[in-house]
UniProtKB/TrEMBL annotation:
Main localization, broad class: cytoplasm
Protein name per UniProt: Histidine--tRNA ligase
Keyword field contains Nucleotide-binding: yes
Organism whose genome encodes this protein: Bacillus badius
Alphabetized NCBIfam families for the sequence: hisS
Amino acid sequence: MSINIPRGTQDILPGTVEKWQHIEKIATEICRNYQYKEIRTPIFEHTELFQRGVGDTTDIVQKEMYTFTDRGDRSLTLRPEGTAAVVRSFVENKMFGDPNQPVKLYYNGPMFRYERPQSGRYRQFVQFGVEAIGSEDPAIDAEVMALVMDIYKTAGLQKVELVLNSLGDKDSRVAYRNALIEHFQPRIGEFCEDCQSRLEKNPMRILDCKKDREHELMKSAPSILDYLNEYSRTYFEKVQSYLTALGIDFTIDPTLVRGLDYYNHTAFEVMSRADGFGAITTLCGGGRYNGLVSQMGGPDVPGIGFAFSMERFLAAMEAEGIAWEDDNRLDCYVVSLGEEAKDYTVKLVHDLRTAGMKAERDYQNRKMKAQFKAADRLQARFVAILGEDELKENKINIKDMETGEQQEIALDQFVETLRKKMEEK
Ligand code: AMP
C-alpha cells in the first residue's frame, strides 16, 4: 500500500520550486534595502506562547492548532503564525537593548493550521513576514506597507490593492467595544455560537465572522473610525499622508479588523484583484501590535508587521499571467564516445562546475544521439564532444547550440575557452 501526502499539504516539485526561489530572492533583497534582517525561530513552541500571543479567543487558538504532548509531557504546538515567536525571541534575547531601534526583522518558513483545505488555504503553508519592533512612528507603519507593495510590484503584480483601517488605541477600542456590544446584544441570538461567545470577550471579532457575514446587523454596525480619539485619528492621518507621499494607493475599509487579538492602530491587508484569482483574495495581512511585547513579558515597546503566504503570492502571479526567465539553462553538456572518453568527462564536467558553470554529462550509458537529445532537453548553450580520437590528440569539439558553429580546441584550454564564451553570451 502506498502512502499519500497529508491533506492540506503539498510537495513543491522541481519546475515549481524555482518560482518559490524567485519570489524569495525578490523578497529578501527588498528586505535588505529596507534594512530588515532575517530571524529563524523554531517550528514548534510552547503552546502557551500562542495562547498568550495570538489570543485565546481567536479561531487559530481555539480550533486550528497542531498541538501535541512531547515525551517529557510538555504541551507544544507547531507554529500557526510568525509574530508570537519573533516577539518571544525579541524579549528572550533582550533585543530591546540593541542601540539600533526599531529592531527590524523578517522571517520565511512553514506555518501550520488545522483549517478546511481549499484553493489558497493549506494546513501547511509558508509565510514570509516582517516585524519592526520598538517604534511608534507612523512612518514605520508606512514603511512596512511600502515594503510589501514593493515586493509585489517587483514581482510584476499589478492587480493588488492595499486596504487600510485603524483599530485605534486602547481608549478608542473601549469606546468602540461598548458601541458594538450595544449594537449586537439585542439580536445576538441570530448569530453563530462563535459570535455569541465573542460578544463579551472580543466583539470586534464578530465583524470578522465568515458565517454571519451577510447578516443585516453586520452592515449597519458602527464604524471604528467614528470612535477614534484625537491621538488615534491623528496617527491614522499621518500614516495615510506618508503613504500618499510615497505614491502608494490605498483604500480605507472600516470593517477590516483582522483575525488576531493583538492588533491596534494600523491594520491592513493586500488583496488580489486579478480575474480568476480564487475566492480567497487576501494576499497579505498585517498591523500594529503595541501591547504584545509587554504581554510576552518584555518592556512596553510597540511593534508592527505583516505576513503573506508564498502559496497565494504564486497564485496571484499565475492569475495575472506573469512569467519570468528561469536562468537554470545548462551552460555545457559534455557528450562522450567510448569508455576512455566517458571516464575522462567525469573530471571535465567537475572542472566546468568548479569554474562556476552549469555542466552535465550522461549517467545512463546513452548512445551519442541520445546524449545530444538530453543536451537539448536541458537547453544546453554549448555541447562539448569528446571521442576516443580527440582524447588521443588532446582535443575536444565545442558546438554553440544557438549558432551551430563548431570549433576544435586543445583539451587543456577547454574550461578557460568555454568560460570566455559564456561571458560573451
Ligand atoms: P494571517 O496570519 O491569518 O493574518 O495571514 C496572513 C497571510 O497568510 C494571509 O493573507 C495569507 O496570505 C496567508 N495565509 C493564512 N492562512 C493561510 C493558509 N491556510 N494557507 C495559505 N495561506 C495562508
